[in-house]
Specification:
Blueprint (H helix, E strand, L loop, with lengths): L1 H5 L1 E3 L7 E4 L8 E7 L5 E9 L2 E16 L6 E12 L2
Parallel strand pairs: 2-5
Antiparallel strand pairs: 1-2, 3-4, 4-5, 5-6
Length: about 90
């Protein structure tokens, strides 16, 4: 349930510490939580829906790669990253 609400799921078939971001907020207006990283560390996620856009923030001390749904290039994250998504 947490991975679904946060929109981030592991995609280790694509590489070590690779994740897919495919958020479907539905009627939720915001969510926050933490996901463990295999081998140690956590990914902190916070998102907030504003109209048809979502402000999505990821914080992690461990380098990860995010594959955003409907985007060609993956995003490498270490530290803090903020994304603006279209709400589905």
């Amino acid at each position: 349930m947490t991975r679904y609400m946060l929109g981030l799921r592991p995609r280790f078939d694509l590489g070590d510490k690779h994740y897919e971001l495919n958020l479907k907020p539905g009627s939720l207006t915001n969510a926050s939580g933490k996901l463990p990283i295999p081998g140690g560390g956590v990914i902190q996620i916070n998102w907030k829906k504003m109209g048809n856009q979502v402000s999505y923030t990821i914080v992690t001390a461990v380098p990860i790669t995010i594959h955003v749904a409907n985007k060609d290039k993956p995003v490498k994250v270490i530290g803090k990253a903020s994304l603006t998504l279209t709400a589905n």
